[in-house]
């Protein structure tokens, strides 16, 4: 059986692993730490593995994720919404995490996609060095490319550690971005339906 590449751990060449671990060790030295002390002896290797995981989206192929999980629409033409998809990503400006939830909707034209594939698509792009605006657009455009639906809507809500831990240090601030394609952009009624379906009472972002 052909393995789904998206679910297979990508093995990096040993020299690449050792190179990143060496850079992590050098970083510890630069901040004034002793990489040889007990608590840090294996930190460079652990940090390398963590960084590889957090950027594993570069090694994931969208077609392998979809893996044929497209189905005929038949009589279903209503909006499909998968909301509250949790994600974690890394800000490309400061290499600090940002995290939140994404709501993804589409209006089927000819095909439906397996529901579990949508969170996997989100993870593929979240596990890269990112900015929230691009992440939102990439998810929307991928759904558009894979399904060719009548429209796609994506709303992304996130908190950024680069704003919470440094800089303005505003722990309660949140950022909301959206991407609307096709009917979601052209028809106010479609946008309003989407917003009403994903709205949360007393939601921290609203």
Output the radius of gyration. Answer: 20 Å
How would a textbook summarize the main sheet? 5 strands, mixed
Question: What portion of the residues fall into strands of 2 or more residues?
Answer: 15-25%
| Helix fraction bin | 25-40%
Mean pLDDT: 88
Count of separate DSSP helical elements: 8
Structure report:
The protein is of the alpha+beta class and 206 residues long. Helix content is 38%, strand content 24%. It contains 8 helices and 7 strands, in the order αααββββαβαβαβαα. It has helices spanning 14-30, 43-54, 62-66, 117-126, 132-147, 161-164, 183-186, 188-198, and strands at 70-72, 80-91, 97-107, 111-113, 129-130, 151-160, 175-182. A 5-stranded mixed beta sheet has the order 5-2-3-6-7. Helix 1 (14-30) crosses helix 2 and helix 4 (117-126) runs antiparallel to helix 5 (132-147). The chain is elongated, with a radius of gyration of 20 Å.
């Amino acid at each position: 059986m052909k393995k789904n590449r998206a679910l297979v751990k990508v093995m990096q060449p040993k020299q690449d692993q050792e190179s990143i671990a060496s850079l992590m060790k050098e970083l510890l030295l630069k901040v004034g730490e002793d990489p040889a002390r007990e608590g840090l002896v294996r930190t460079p290797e652990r940090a390398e593995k963590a960084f590889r995981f957090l950027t594993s989206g570069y090694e994931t192929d969208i077609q392998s994720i979809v893996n044929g999980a497209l189905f005929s629409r038949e009589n279903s033409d209503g909006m499909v919404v998968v909301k509250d998809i949790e994600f974690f990503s890394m800000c490309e400006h400061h290499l600090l995490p940002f995290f939140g939830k994404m709501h993804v909707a589409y209006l089927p034209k000819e095909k439906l996609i397996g529901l579990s594939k949508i969170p996997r698509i989100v993870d593929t792009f979240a596990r890269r060095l990112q900015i929230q605006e691009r992440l939102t657009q990439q998810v929307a455009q991928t759904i558009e490319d894979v399904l060719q639906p009548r429209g796609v809507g994506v709303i992304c809500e996130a908190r950024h550690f680069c704003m919470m831990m440094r800089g303005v240090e505003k722990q309660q601030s949140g950022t909301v971005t959206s991407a609307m394609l096709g009917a979601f952009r052209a028809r106010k009624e479609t946008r309003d339906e989407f917003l009403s379906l994903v709205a949360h009472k007393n939601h921290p972002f609203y």
